[in-house]
């Protein structure tokens, strides 16, 4: 028997930014790595808000929200970026310069906390994207978060399916970075792990080596889904 969904999908608007940022933070709180990105949840939420203010409304970005029908609450959201050819060329040029600079002997110990860990991870992500997407059109899935009280209701699956449909319609691959918490849903929807970064969080967490806070090895998975349609020929 088929059941009607208890939620609906709609484009996110700028007025939704505070709620989107809040969901991002509360969904990440159980994740030890994200806990090291900012000193406090308040600072984390402030950083996400600033990020979203630069994205929502930009034509190269799509932000989709999920609203629970019973309560009317915005419960989950995701975003995708489809850079233009000009943006790809500009990004590739900057990436080459950043990669060259980062390979001049900078080691883990030379990053400050915070934002040491996110800088270290971003540089590795830049190298991966440069390798796989240089000069090529593509889509980046940049975020997908569900408020904990609304998890396991199919909202995340619906968002992933929506993004995959975008990619199939445009005949473009989707790239993303999956956390240990998030990657299973992407694997379920035909994303393949093509590379990964292992990080010992004890090297980044203050006083983690002197007490047990659950820190240890953390794997960032770089994932790819190829489109199910071929590019249109002129």
UniProtKB/TrEMBL annotation:
SUPFAM superfamilies: Acyl-CoA N-acyltransferases (Nat) (SSF55729). Gene3D superfamilies: 3.40.630.30. PANTHER family: GNAT FAMILY ACETYLTRANSFERASE, N-ACETYLTRANSFERASE DOMAIN-CONTAINING PROTEIN. This is N-acetyltransferase domain-containing protein. It comes from Lepraria neglecta. The lineage of its organism: Eukaryota, Fungi, Dikarya, Ascomycota, Pezizomycotina.
């Amino acid at each position: 028997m088929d059941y009607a969904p208890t939620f609906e999908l709609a484009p996110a608007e700028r007025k939704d930014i505070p709620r989107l940022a809040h969901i991002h933070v509360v969904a990440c709180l159980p994740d030890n790595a994200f806990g090291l990105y900012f000193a406090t949840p308040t600072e984390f939420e402030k950083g996400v808000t600033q990020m979203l203010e630069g994205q929502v409304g930009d034509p190269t970005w799509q932000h989709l929200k999920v609203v629970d029908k019973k309560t009317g609450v915005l419960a989950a959201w995701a975003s995708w970026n489809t850079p233009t050819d000009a943006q790809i060329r500009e990004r590739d040029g900057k990436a080459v310069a950043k990669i060259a600079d980062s390979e001049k002997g900078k080691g883990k110990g030379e990053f400050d906390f915070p934002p040491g860990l996110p800088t270290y991870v971003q540089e590795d992500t830049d190298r991966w994207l440069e390798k796989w997407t240089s000069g090529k059109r593509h889509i980046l899935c940049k975020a997908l978060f569900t408020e904990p009280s609304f998890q396991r209701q199919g909202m995340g699956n619906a968002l992933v399916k929506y993004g995959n449909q975008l990619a199939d319609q445009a005949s473009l691959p989707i790239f993303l970075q999956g956390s240990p918490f998030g990657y299973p849903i992407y694997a379920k929807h035909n994303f393949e792990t093509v590379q990964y970064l292992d990080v010992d969080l004890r090297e980044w967490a203050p006083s983690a080596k002197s007490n047990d806070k659950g820190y240890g090895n953390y794997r960032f998975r770089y994932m790819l889904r190829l489109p199910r349609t071929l590019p249109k020929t002129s």
